[in-house]
Amino acid sequence: MEDAELPAEWNRDERYDRLARRSGNDPKYAGYIHESGDARVHIAFPEAESGDDGAYTVFVTLFPYTELSESGTVRAVTRRDRAEEIARQCMKLFDGVYDGPSTIEDAIEYALERTRPPDVADTSLVNDEGQR
Q1: Strand pairing category for 70-77 and 56-62
Q2: Which SS3 state, helix, strand or coil, does residue 21 take?
Q3: Fold of 8-115
Q4: Which residues contact 18 (CB under 8 A, 6 or more apart)?
Q5: Half-sphere exposure of 71 toward its Cβ, with a 13 Å CA cutoff?
Q6: 57-87: per-residue pLDDT in tens?
Q7: Cβ atoms within 10 Å, residue 51
Q8: Predicted confidence (pLDDT) per residue in 9-30, tens digit
Q9: Which tens digit of pLDDT belongs to each residue from 43-62?
Q10: What single string gives the DSSP state of each residue in 68-117?
């Protein structure tokens, strides 16, 4: 994802690029950090050790690089452009609710609800007899 495609409050997390360059490898992750430092969205490429095998996996981390850090999977997809689209959408949705550290849980919950895949078995349309 090009920097120009990032939402205004987000920047590329250069730590991934630096680590890859130091080890002489191609980056296996692309990371983006909120200007507050309270949230990070990153994409694990298929060859990365984390994430689903053969997929681009989008992760979100609250309070990255701290003792309070919590990470979770947003979604795994087969194409990089789709992973970038989901990451961008997650960032924008987060920004729509985030208003400082006191709202971080609400902001990330809002973003995750709207970017995670829908349940495969939606039972809301099934009546008491199990018929649609």
Answers
A1: antiparallel
A2: helix
A3: Rossmann fold (3.40.50)
A4: none
A5: 16
A6: 999 999 998 998 998 899 999 999 999 999 9
A7: 22
A8: 999 988 877 777 777 777 788 8
A9: 998 887 777 778 899 999 99
A10: T-EEEEEEEES-HHHHHHHHHHHHHHHHHH--SGGGHHHHHHHHHHHHSP
- Rounded (to 5) percent helix, strand, coil in the chain: 35, 25, 45
86 Cβ contact list (under 8 Å, min separation 6): 58, 74, 75, 77, 115
pTM, rounded to two decimals: 0.80
Q: Which residue has the tokens 């979604």?
A: 75
Count CA atoms within 13 Å of residue 60 on its CB side.
Answer: 25
Kindly list the domain boundaries of the chain, sorted by start residue.
8-115
Cβ atoms of residues 80 and 61 within 8 Å: no
